[in-house]
Amino acid sequence: MAPLFLCFLVFNVLSQTQAVSVKRQATLFNQAVAVGNLTTTVVDEASGLAASRRHPGILYTHNDSGDGPKIYALNASDASLVATFTVVAAVNHDWEDIAVGPCDEGGNCIYIGDFGVGHDGQSAKTIYRVKEPATLVDQILDLDSFLKFDWSSTEGQTLLVDNDGEVYVVTNVLGGRAKMYILPYFAWGEPERTYVHSTSSVHLPLHTSHHDPVGGDISPNGEDLLIKAKHHVYYWHVPDRDYFRAMSNPPTELPYHQERLGESICWDVTGDKYYTLSEGRFATLYSYSRKVPDSITVVG
Length: 300
Ligand SMILES: [Ca+2]
Prior knowledge:
Layout: H1 3-26, E1 33-37, E2 46-51, E3 58-63, E4 70-75, E5 81-87, E6 95-102, E7 108-114, E8 126-131, E9 139-141, E10 145-150, E11 156-161, E12 167-171, E13 173-174, E14 179-183, E15 194-195, E16 201-203, E17 211-212, E18 215-218, E19 224-228, E20 233-237, H2 243-246, E21 252-254, E22 262-267, E23 273-278, E24 284-289
Parallel strand pairs: 5-9, 10-15
Antiparallel strand pairs: 1-24, 2-3, 3-4, 4-5, 6-7, 7-8, 8-10, 11-12, 12-14, 13-17, 14-16, 18-19, 19-20, 20-21, 22-23, 23-24
């Protein structure tokens, strides 16, 4: 085979490979659709978002510092407030994110990450866990358990919980190089703080010019991970559910409608779409649906 022809062939194959890759990334999810606006004024600084497993079509959110220990259940189809849960024996020092995952003894639990820096300059560095209630009415929820930790970082804004109930917290860092920590399971219920060493962490391959990331979520089947930065949504497909190893790969950027103060992101219960919600009164809930495979145009 003539060398010139071989060069042309290799170049052509590489070009096609790149075209396929770029096209697939660009067509993975649809652009934002406005689902509806918050109609209640009690949610005015939405700081986290998570899909209920027990009540499909319901999203949980919360305010950051300044509110009580309250979880708000929203209708995912119109952003209306359905119910308010108050968590006994918890404090909202600066709740930064929320997730849903398994309880210790089966069933589904809501996890709340209180690890922001409050107005007093302090961070509670505590994860709260409550069982998902059976009914969607205003009620008080007992604390299922708590996890108090310490670390060398100042704050985090991202809480991730996987199918096994493993809890990951991501630091919030200016200029990139944030770190994902896994919190030790034995720390649940311990009255003393458990120090989490850097050996239990991995750097995120993100370099932004803001304090990032600001939120994230693991899909219900555990195979998809979202991390939200101030101006971008990043995605990893993690079929082996090894989220630490996934951080050695660059993410795919997904569609994001820029919000004024958007910190909240979650998958829906099926993993076929994700949602974002901004801080602020009457904020808009946006959804981004996964394109069906047949609609993906393979170039080349
Ligand atoms: Ca937050």
